[in-house]
Backbone:
């Protein structure tokens, strides 16, 4: 019998998705104020959902700059963020200008494959805005040019890939920022 048909008939018991392993809360000093991840016009709902889960795990604020390539109610976004959406401080902005207007004093660090400085060279501070571009276009070139001293890059072998996945890049950068802040505490 086909397993799919058996499950559809409920003849095969379903595995429970309950976490039974013990978890350990490691000692860690979380930044105050928290970091901000800023996604400029994200297109792929699963990436935003994964970044939302990252934000829930680290107490980071998630700022979304419209237009989005999906609706936050989309099934893919919710699935990727699992049941963590209630734990995420999500802020939406109609455009980048409105975000910059609302956060004039937030130090902004930009991440792009066009950055000339390694992301580990940044001196991260609590409350920094870590700004990432869309999956297909990256950050607008005028934004990169206007902020050249604050544009960072993650090293990679460019003869193999064009860029890293957005959710992976955000994770790499955020945990480096958290590591640095913990070393200073």
Residues:
């Amino acid at each position: 019998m086909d397993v799919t048909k058996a499950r559809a008939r409920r003849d095969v018991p379903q595995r429970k998705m309950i976490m039974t392993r013990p978890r350990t809360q490691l000692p860690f000093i979380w930044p105050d104020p928290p970091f901000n991840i800023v996604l400029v016009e994200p297109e792929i709902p699963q990436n935003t959902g994964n970044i939302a889960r990252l934000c829930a795990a680290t107490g980071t604020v998630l700022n979304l700059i419209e237009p989005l390539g999906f609706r936050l109610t989309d099934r893919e976004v919710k699935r990727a963020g699992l049941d963590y959406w209630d734990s995420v401080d999500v802020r939406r902005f109609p455009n980048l200008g409105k975000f910059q207007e609302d956060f004039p004093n937030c130090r902004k660090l930009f991440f792009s494959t066009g950055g000339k400085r390694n992301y580990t060279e940044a001196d991260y501070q609590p409350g920094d805005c870590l700004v990432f571009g869309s999956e297909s276009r990256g950050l607008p070139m005028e934004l990169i040019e206007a902020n050249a001293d604050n544009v960072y890059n993650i090293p990679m072998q460019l003869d193999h890939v064009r860029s890293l996945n957005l959710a992976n890049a955000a994770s790499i950068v955020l945990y480096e920022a958290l590591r640095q802040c913990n070393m200073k505490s």
